[in-house]
Design brief:
293 residues; single chain; 11 helices; alpha/beta; two-stranded antiparallel sheet; eight-stranded parallel β-barrel
Length: 293
């Protein structure tokens, strides 16, 4: 499963912006058909996005699309316009529970079969924006096709309205919610995705918020502005100091193990097999992300 440090929203109606997408250096792009598109321009945006998917994919961009949700189900016109070769996944807003995902997954499978696409090749990324979805976060994360779940802590958005919290930059009011999302995702074996920083020009605030999310266990974030991508990518990438530390830890343990020791001191700390497993996992992440320090 690929790890996405940054998933950058781009409004589906902003066709001219699509040309710049490869230069943003986001791990993935979310072409948005939902909140950033006026109701009277939905059809036009669908056409733009449908044309952009194969074009961007051919340039090595991982393309996701956020679709609309009606009163009872996800927008079928959106789905029919985007299910094609080159689509990495569908971002699901305002999900309530696993039943919706199972129903949608069956519909996507039918479209994949008709088009000769790999069955199950299109993933799903549910955004937990209702109190019910947060309560059912593990059940949602465990559904077929789900790549990750997004637990957002934005100011005055759908999550804030649903939970009734009063937003602060410190984030204490959303600490439980975010921790629950991380635990549910990890238990289900999918990625916990955080965000969403709205004050996009306040880069110091973004950095503090993202650093805290990473401490909680998130692996990446939804991002609203290209200027935020490099900061979030950096925060969710192991630093040179971390890499050096873990490489040294593994080497020190190897040397100790040759001498029959499996509990040692390393840089003043007790180290055993559990710590070595953690170090190897971090270093494997570095290798998969192709990080050069």
């Amino acid at each position: 499963m690929k790890r996405y440090r940054t998933l950058l929203f781009v409004p589906g109606i902003k066709k001219k912006w699509f040309e710049n997408i490869p230069s943003y250096n986001a791990d993935g792009i979310i072409l948005d058909l939902e909140d950033s598109v006026p109701a009277n321009l939905k059809e036009e945006a669908r056409q733009y996005v449908s044309e952009a998917i194969p074009n961007l994919s051919s340039k090595g961009v991982d393309v996701f699309v956020r679709i609309n949700k009606g009163a009872e189900e996800f927008d079928k016109e959106d789905i029919h316009s985007i299910v094609m070769d080159g689509l990495q996944g569908i971002v699901l807003p305002k999900i309530d529970g696993p039943d919706e995902i199972e129903q949608l997954s069956k519909h996507i499978k039918e479209l994949e079969e008709k088009q000769g696409l790999a069955i199950g090749g299109i993933g799903l990324l549910p955004i937990l924006e209702t109190a019910k979805s947060m309560q059912l976060s593990y059940e949602i994360a465990s559904c077929e096709r789900v790549l990750g779940i997004a637990g957002l802590s934005a100011k005055n958005g759908d999550v804030a309205r649903s939970l009734g919290y009063q937003w602060t930059s410190e984030g204490l009011e959303t600490l439980y919610m975010r921790s629950k999302v991380v635990m549910s995702a990890r238990a289900a074996g999918v990625s916990p995705i955080g965000g969403l920083w709205q004050d996009v020009h306040n880069l110091e605030g973004l950095r503090k918020s993202s650093e805290f999310n990473r401490q909680l266990g998130f692996v990446g974030e939804l991002v609203l502005h290209p200027s935020n991508v490099s900061i979030v990518n950096d925060i969710y990438s192991p630093s040179k100091e971390e890499i050096d530390y873990y490489e040294g830890l593994v080497e020190a343990f190897k040397n100790a193990e040759r001498n029959g020791e499996t509990a040692i001191m390393y840089k003043g700390e007790h180290i055993d097999y559990a710590h070595v497993k953690t170090a190897k996992k971090v270093l494997e992440t570095v290798k998969n992300m192709n990080i050069i320090q």
